[in-house]
């Protein structure tokens, strides 16, 4: 029978494993199942790790309390993973490896376990039964003489109160009426805070309302009776849920002098515990930490601060680890403090005056208010007395452990010695776990940097490089980031990219950063703190809140809608913000800004990794800039080699299609031109320079410009080509041979067109008549750029209405698919199907035929020039 349940869902991030452990630990301790808490936490840790780290999915954890024990279910969204089976030929693997141990541990520790599959989920469950023990032996004390027993009235009255989730009293028994004088009808429905006199909440720094939210609480406070007097009581609170899932708190209260009825047995210090009955000595580390010890650093540190707090009956405890250079301590675990906001905060080792400020020796502070700043971590927490001890390994400082209380004067040198003894027992284990974590971080950092380098090297696009920088940073290194770029030394930093792990906050952060001055472009390497965004966001949120309350003047309805985004932005950028310079080729080209949400800090290892990434990103960003500049120059020069436009010729349809081979090339070795000569005549040319790319394009420019100049001098076609041949040969080693078809076109009065053509080594032009016949329109002659004394002649061709003249480069005729080639005959066959088409339709059909002839992209430049004398035509 299930008597209680608790459920939670955890995101697929590494920190969820520790959160899941805390959830299960708190749940089982609240149910009073301390005997099986450790096994349950170990199994849950492994299964949640499998889900959120190895499978990369959300993990759903469900705790079910039964009469015999507890059943815990962990579900993930990766149902394809295999289940290891015992007693088969397949080895289950080593339990010491990093992943895959969860099911093996279930088989070893759980009473029962199993795996359930659905199409979308895999559910692993395990049952832990409570150990069998005789009734009454859970806790026991010695027999005492009657005069030493606790004093009580003739009848011990236990007031039983039940408080709903809102803090209102829902149940008030007869003993409560007798003790406090209030009838049940007078108090039911009233908040407990109206009756409770709450001067102090041990261990929480909160009031009664917050204490009622805890799973279990025990301590002293007062209840105001009907006569107005405060009766001191000792109380035990237990938070439960009814069958409908509604939480409430059951409170048991007795007179304070009768606290023995409810008070839990006092904790026995680790050093005073009895030896095992078999006579073997206990391991001091296991005595303090418990068994089994957590196998991860975060779990070990959290268990340490919890046990240290319990050992000294403190209200809070904290543990700091030294950085590699031992100049700073970094907060790694705490309990009982207002929040985990101080995690990864860094404090100097030698903080505060005198020996009490040093972390290198034990220190006892009777009252922190008399030594301000002695323990920076506890500033503003309400803690008054504290004892701190160092963690040392072979004389080297590795950390600091502290326990604090709200009351002054709680600790003495005796407590310091006890805590130091515990610290000495765990220091080596903590250092070993820290070094192991550091090694894993370094391996992960190397893998991260290798992947980042590959991604950054894979693009030369500036915008894509900026996006990659941000996406690699968030959320791996930071919660949000911004990239500033600097165009040149005289330019101000420009906000180029903003990213947050929550896309809804990006616009708010971008708006905030655009209103403040960018960070100074300092070339000094390393991360430096930039407090401006957090301060400005905080001030904006404060002003918005005051205006919404009417405290700053003006109407409130106008800004009410903007309060939510303003507060969200302030929370998003309220943590630590650091700036890393982007330096490439000895010049600051930008800044990478990394940020954390409210009151969070960066780990030193993360900042070092971010600095390494910023160096790679800066070089990639500068390479993208240089590539963009060179591409722009190249494209501008290439466009200057193309004809400015195709002129309109009355009585002749003209269509040109040009394709340069190679990515990013606009001009290659093939070229074309059509230009007016004068007296109604037009020159046209189509040619092919040997080779492709920039060198061929240079000869292309020479040929096209020379053709125009020479033709407009009134020279004949052969004379134009002979002088162009001489100009090419004059280039010396840079010269390249050139095939060229050049002609002059003149319209006739009868509507036909007369063409005078010279074909110097170029594929012959084809003439398509209206009856569908295709013939060559010229004879082959020597190409240009090979011999000096070149003799050429021109031929005259007449295009009647409806006739088409097609001129192409060899990239069209030499189109290949394996051993097949389109060739002159194939081109002629395609042209025969173009009877009656316009010049544009003819050119388009030829190009489609060329593209479809082979599956691979063309490897050679291609140019198609189609001219048609208008007649009766049909659409393509």
Brief synopsis:
This protein has 876 residues and is an alpha+beta fold. Helices cover 31% and strands 25% of the residues. Helix 1 (15-30) runs antiparallel to helix 2.
- End-to-end Cα distance, whole Å, is 80 Å
Biggest pleated-sheet summary? 6 strands, antiparallel
> What is the strand tally?
34
Unreliable runs, pLDDT <50, ≥5 residues? 81-99, 200-206, 267-282, 351-357, 555-562
Instruction: Compute the number of helices.
Output: 19
Helix content: 25-40%
Beta-strand content bin = 25-35%
Strand adjacency order, main sheet: 7-6-11-10-9-8
Rg, alpha carbons: 43 Å
Average pLDDT works out at 80
Global shape: elongated
What structural category do the secondary elements indicate?
A: alpha+beta
Q: What does this protein look like?
A:
InterPro entries: Bact_Sigma-Reg, GAF, GAF-like_dom_sf, HATPase_C_sf, HATPase_dom, PAS, PAS-like_dom_sf, PAS_fold. One of its GO terms (biological process) is regulation of DNA-templated transcription. Residues 271-283 have a biased composition (Polar residues). This is PAS domain-containing protein. This protein has 876 residues and is of the alpha+beta class. Mean pLDDT is 80; it is low at 81-99, 200-206, 267-282, 351-357 and 555-562. The chain has 19 helices and 34 strands. The strands form 7 sheets. A 6-stranded antiparallel sheet has the order 7-6-11-10-9-8. Helices cover 31% and strands 25% of the residues. Helix 8 (297-311) runs antiparallel to helix 9, helix 10 runs antiparallel to helix 14 (604-641) and helix 15 packs antiparallel against helix 16 (717-729).
